Amino acid sequence: MSLVSRDPVLLTPGPLTTSLQTKSAMLRDWGSWDAAFNAVTAKVRQQLLKIIHGEETHVCVPMQGSGTFSVEAAINTLVPRDGHVLVLINGAYGKRMARLTEMMGRRVSVFETPEDVPTTAEDVERLLAADSSITHVGLIHCETSTGILNPLEEIADVVARHGKGLILDAMSSFGALEIDAKKIQFDAVIAASGKCIEGPPGMGFVLVRKSVLEKCAGHSTSLSLDLYDQWVYMEKTTQWRFTPPTHILVALHTALNQFEAEGGQAARLQRYTNNYQTLMAGLEELGLQSFLKPEIQAPIIVTVHAPVNAKYDFKTFYETVRSKGFVLYPGKLTQAETFRVGCIGAIGTQEMRSAIHAMKDALAEMV
Ligand SMILES: *Cc1c(COP(=O)(O)O)cnc(C)c1O
């Protein structure tokens, strides 16, 4: 994969580096009433459903805004006002889901493990057995604050066995890690345009079990974030309910075409895994250590311990690496000084190797 622009490479978990083709798709203006634009919306909805093999069981409801808007819309629409959500937390995004659930007036219980400990199916089994009032379970697939992977399949099985609804925040894994609606049961999976599908940021989408969404009229306490209304309106008119993010949607369509041409989810996972392995080998060369054990690490984003060097300072390190063409991501942990490196985006191992060189030079300049 060759670098076609002189913009710095974003080693961040979204917004991320997009291809020139995806960027170029944003050079046209579209009318929201225009049939050609609405055909793109329909196509994108189909393409997204196909990624989870959900054409028979689920529907795709796109939503304006960043990913959090879609998480909020999913919880607010799918959980009845007297519902009770158990949120499984091992990082900032789990905490955010619990907070927004509470703010929307739903009952919420949380189960929190340390940031380097995945939630297990046994935990969920015990929690659901202990409290039958729980109606839904909220799970973060890959918790982007560290890069930890939670065991989706096992947890989904437990939730299904208890007859509860699973709401999955798969924002940073969707398109890269397998999520197959034919193999696992969930009410909704939430993701966004600007992560592993490699579109620009600006809209999210929720893939909801149709039989569930059909019963969600009137749940939402928000007008703009009502997924049920968005769905019904879109089905009826082919249009978005309020002003659509036209350029983002068309670029997302282009990104999805490239995703399919590359070979879909399996090929994307392979490329990211190659990036991840190149990164890990490079970190070892630099004497840097990753925060998570490899067994629980998704090949999406890696949290790295700051070097043991009295002169190290993230801001200086960041600026130096930035001046060499690579944008790193700050750490999000309270317990340890870290920084993060994303493996996702329209990049390959060549960019990752160059990034390692940039980090090496930056560290050498700091002693
Ligand atoms: C990116 C992300 C979100 C959404 O964050 P926004 O800043 O609103 O786009 C939610 N959950 C996870 C796990 C994420 O990685």
UniProtKB/TrEMBL annotation:
Keywords: Aminotransferase, Pyridoxal phosphate, Pyruvate, Transferase. GO terms for biological process: organic phosphonate catabolic process. Its EC number is 2.6.1.37. Its cofactor is pyridoxal 5'-phosphate. Residues 28-315 form the Aminotransferase class V domain. The modification N6-(pyridoxal phosphate)lysine is found at K195. It catalyses: (2-aminoethyl)phosphonate + pyruvate = phosphonoacetaldehyde + L-alanine. Substrate binds at R340. GO terms for molecular function: 2-aminoethylphosphonate-pyruvate transaminase activity. The keyword Zinc-finger does not apply. It holds the Pfam family Aminotran_5. Belongs to the class-V pyridoxal-phosphate-dependent aminotransferase family. PhnW subfamily. Involved in phosphonate degradation. This is 2-aminoethylphosphonate--pyruvate transaminase.
